[in-house]
Design goal:
Blueprint (H helix, E strand, L loop, with lengths): L15 H17 L3 E2 L5 E3 H7 L5 H5 L3 E3 L5 E4 L4 H10 L9 E10 L11 E10 L4 H18 L4 E7 L6 H13 L7 H9 L10 H8 L10 H16 L5 E2 L11 E9 L9 E5 L3 H4 L7 E7 H10 L12 E5 L2 H16 L4 E3 L6 H11 L3 E5 L1 H6 L1 E6 L5 E5 L3 H5 L1
Parallel strand pairs: 1-5, 7-8, 12-13, 12-14
Antiparallel strand pairs: 2-4, 3-4, 5-6, 6-11, 7-9, 9-10, 10-11, 14-15, 15-16
Helix pairs in contact: 1-5, 5-9
This protein binds histidyl-adenosine monophosphate (HAM).
Length: 415
């Protein structure tokens, strides 16, 4: 028997109300902040991701679904959403539009990770990207959008973690300070951290190994090494977040798994769990558009994992709207009745009334059972007597009362 590939899931009908609910909140908050939807291809040239996310990151080195197409070009299934939107921004000349350009997406993302609770090989992200403005007020607005999204969903037990990792001017000096500090502790580092020390020192702060915790906790902080421009940006952002009443935690060990970030970074976590379960994250990437061949353009955004958000909606027992069942079920007995049932169903649907019918030749009992399971308000019964008389029996499913009405009056009765 075939199974869904490891780390992927079918979103079954009973799960769909959660997805529709999340999508409806996305539509609402993106409208409030003036974001426009963009959909990009599921795969891109591999170079787009290696250049933006960065070689040396786990995402690029270990997790991408990369393949040669039949023309011999290396392609990769989208391992994150930002790079494609940046490519589209450059390709379609969006720098010529009034800035900032605000785009959002809901998209499947593919990562060859070790599957576990809340970690999949295909997951979905709601992402926002905002191009062309470096004012920290926009950082605050983007964070406000994400925060409003979680709050509108009804999530309460979440934390917002914030940090600044500087820019290309001040980061190199900070990395040097960080490396010098870690070199003093090299004998106590885990094997991964020994590699990180040379290849990607910022990620040292993110290590989950018990033995590295106290070293990371005492490590020099990026916020102490910011240049005056980055420090000013971070101060203003915090002032704005306070003005907006958005509670945040400065987390000096917050770094992100992708290389393109500058200055502001943030992550939203469920209160009681570690960073493996981040509900979303993002930040500034002021150098990325230029790195991909565009004009220097400040930008920032976030990606929020929809599967993890739905897990937390369930954990927090958030009540979500349930879709209403079709209004009516048509049960029939015999060939002639089936023709009447078909025509009646078409008329009711034409008038906007949802109708289902079982098909085939089932007993009345079986058909009524099905109507009950569906939770319809009315069952319309057409048997041989009704065919002869040109009528239908209308059964109110909530109180089991029945009445006979002319076939051509069923619609007005239901209305
Ligand atoms: P990311 O932190 O790699 O950022 O992913 C964003 C979110 O996607 C995570 O916080 C998490 O909720 C969810 N997620 C990531 N991997 C998985 C997985 N394997 N299974 C389930 N959920 C997952 C980015 O992708 C950036 N592009 C975000 C961004 C946009 N930064 C700026 N703009």
């Amino acid at each position: 028997m075939y199974q869904a590939p490891r780390g992927t899931t079918d979103i079954l009908p009973e799960e769909q109300p959660y997805w529709r609910f999340v999508e409806s909140v996305i539509a609402e908050v993106t409208r409030l902040y003036g974001y426009q939807r963009i959909d990009s291809p599921t795969f891109e040239e591999t170079g787009l991701f290696t250049r933006s996310v960065g070689e040396g990151t786990d995402l690029v080195d270990k997790e991408m679904y990369t393949f040669d197409d039949k023309g011999g070009k290396s392609m990769t299934l989208r391992p994150e959403g930002t790079a494609s939107v940046c490519r589209a921004y450059i390709q379609h000349g969006m720098a010529n539009l009034p800035q900032p350009v605000k785009l959002y997406y809901i998209t499947p993302v593919f990562r060859y990770e070790r599957p576990q609770a809340g970690r999949f090989r295909q997951h979905h992200q709601f992402g926002c990207e905002c191009f062309g403005e470096d004012d920290p007020a926009i950082d605050a607005e983007v964070i406000d959008l994400a925060w409003r999204f979680y709050k509108t969903l009804g999530l309460k037990n979440i934390n917002l973690n914030l940090n600044s990792i500087g820019c290309k001017e001040c980061r190199p000096a900070y990395l040097k300070i960080l490396q010098d500090y870690y070199r003093q502790h090299i004998n106590n580092l885990c094997a991964d951290c020994k590699t990180r020390l040379e290849k990607n020192p910022l990620r040292l702060l993110d290590c989950k190994q018990e033995s590295c915790q106290h070293i990371a906790d005492k490590a020099p902080r990026s916020v102490d090494a910011l240049c005056p421009a980055c420090a000013g940006h971070f101060d203003k952002l915090q002032k704005y977040l306070k003005a907006l009443d958005i509670p945040y935690i400065i987390n000096n060990r917050l770094v992100r798994g992708l290389d393109y970030y500058t200055r502001t970074i943030f992550e939203v976590q469920p209160e009681e769990e570690g960073s493996q379960s981040a509900l979303g994250g993002g930040g500034r990437y002021d150098g990325l558009i230029e790195q991909l061949g565009g004009k220097p353009t400040p930008a920032l955004g976030f990606g929020l994992g929809i599967e993890r958000i739905i897990l937390n909606i369930k954990k927090e027992n958030v009540k979500i709207p349930t879709p209403s069942p079709p209004a009516a079920f048509i049960a029939y007995l015999g060939d002639a009745a089936q023709v009447n049932a078909l025509k009646l169903a078409a008329d009711l649907r034409q008038a906007g009334i949802g109708v289902v019918s079982a098909g085939g030749a089932k007993s009345l009992k079986a058909q009524l059972r099905q109507a009950n399971t569906l939770g319809v308000c009315y069952t319309i019964i057409i048997g041989e007597d009704e065919v002869k008389a040109g009528t239908a029996t209308l059964r109110n499913m909530s109180d089991a009362t029945q009445k006979t009405v002319a076939l051509n009056e069923v619609l007005s009765h239901l209305k």
